[in-house]
Specification:
With 89 residues, this protein is an alpha+beta fold. It has 1 helix and 5 strands; from the N terminus they run E-E-E-E-E-H.
Length: 89
């Protein structure tokens, strides 16, 4: 069997870094953050500072957890939703 036969079973995670925009401070001003995918985690960087590392734990939009970082849960959900919107279904 060829490897292409199993492509439909793999999650479509981006392989290169990408940017998303998120209102980090609830001011209505959106910040551009860099997301660096690595295996099943996403490293989140803003202004050359590592904010957190996120992992998507299920198919629902709100299923994001911090592996490291000190962001509040609401901000994790915002960033996770922006990442999920970027990832193709």
């Amino acid at each position: 069997m060829m490897d292409e036969d199993f492509d439909f079973e793999q999650e479509k995670q981006p392989e290169i870094p990408f940017h998303v925009e998120v209102d980090l401070y609830d001011t209505g001003d959106y910040s551009r953050i860099l997301v660096v995918p690595c295996n099943s985690v996403y490293h989140v960087v803003h202004n050359d500072e590592h904010l957190c590392t996120l992992v998507h734990t299920c198919e629902e939009v709100e299923c994001w957890e911090q592996e490291d970082g000190t962001l509040d849960e609401e901000l994790v959900e915002k960033i996770g939703a922006a990442i999920k919107a970027f990832i193709p279904d």
